[in-house]
Design goal:
Elements: E1 2-4, H1 22-31, E2 37-40, E3 45-47, H2 49-57, E4 62-68, H3 73-85, H4 92-106, H5 110-132
Parallel strand pairs: 2-4
Antiparallel strand pairs: 1-4, 2-3
Helix pairs in contact: 1-2, 3-4
């Protein structure tokens, strides 16, 4: 799917150092985008920050993206870690931060579990109300 780059949201990424983007920009100019970036349903970036940034820097306004729906925060972070670990390696600090965040998402504390339960309960109520008024 072709997505307007200005509509893509880049939130709280693990990678801090995108590295030298010149070779990637040259590749985009020469061959185009070989692998689409990955977004969630709200156009939040899951994978492909280096490709997205390189595309911006060479003046692209649109980019091909795969949209994946219904991802949990754990799966999103796992995808980011896997994608980037197979490309430019994370720094030790980035990798440590990523795994700390993943551990928190996989094993939320007591209060986070209660908060998540409340959220799910209210979502259920909203869905039930919407079904009543269809």
């Amino acid at each position: 799917m072709l997505v307007n780059i200005s509509e893509i949201k880049v939130k709280n990424r693990i990678r801090k150092d995108l590295g030298d983007l010149e070779p990637l920009k040259d590749s985009l100019r020469r061959y185009g985008l070989l692998n689409p970036i990955t977004l969630d349903a709200k156009n939040r970036l899951i994978a492909g920050e280096r490709r997205l940034q390189a595309a911006k820097e060479i003046g692209w306004t649109n980019i091909n993206a795969v949209i994946i729906n219904n991802l949990t925060p754990v799966t999103k972070l796992e995808l980011e870690l896997e994608e980037n670990n197979q490309r430019k390696e994370f720094t030790d600090a980035e990798l440590l931060e990523g795994y700390k965040r993943l551990e928190k998402l996989r094993n939320p504390g007591f209060f986070r579990k209660i908060f998540n339960a409340f959220i799910e309960f209210f979502k259920w109520i909203i869905r039930a109300i919407k079904r009543l008024f269809k």
